[in-house]
Amino acid sequence: MISWNEVAPTLISENTQKRYLVSLSQCSPHLERNTLAQIDVACLRDLIKVRREQGVSNATIRRDLTAISAILSHAQDEGWVEQNVALTVNRRRIPERRDPILLPTEASIATMLKVMPPKMADICMFAIETGMRQDEIVQLDWSCIDLTRAVATIHKTKGSKLRTVPLTPAALAILGRQPKAPKSSIVFWKGDGSPIGWVSTVFGKWARKSAQQNSDFVRFRFHDLRHFFAVRYLQNGGSVYILQGIMGHSSVKVTEIYLAYLPPDQQQRAKLG
Fold it and tell me: pTM, whole model, 2 decimals?
């Protein structure tokens, strides 16, 4: 694991490496008493059983196996094991159930924007206008923004795939009121120009406060703003294939989940582009 951690930055993104380390730390009590040779299919089946008894979701168990597989692949490259046994585990027996996406209401969004600090509200509105992920927004650099073409080129993405996101007039207005940091080129910055790392925490705090003060308020996550953008884009006549590129989905099948929020005629229009 130490050896893998040294080479991981050349293989995967920083966020992916952090996510793998979280999984590995959760699984280490079950694995650390074994040698590499003792980590076989039976061992991993026992791990899956233990994780399920802990109440862990199938999605998390699958992420655990992916992290373990990364370690074993490295061990295989080093000649320490002949086979990556994590690849032989049948993941079809660990189906990942997706909960239905519950879109935030416009009233709930307006309530949140009203009570949040200005910079936090701008970050939320920027997510609504661009569909960008939280990490992509807080790491956004001025060098990635082309105001003439009204696009943002995203480098630090999930899967490390570069993509270009169009900027609406509202998104450009949000950028226009962001002061420049004295010591960095981060768009949404704190302190001396550092990226903001507490968006989810602060967002959750204001969501709880809004729910306590307003009985009609329906709580939602920051990530739901990305879903809100996608559905609104299709409702306004956008193509599901163009939306795939904006969202950075690896397959249009992922993007098609948003079609369920459209009536049949709009679904057909979105598919035809």
Answer: 0.75
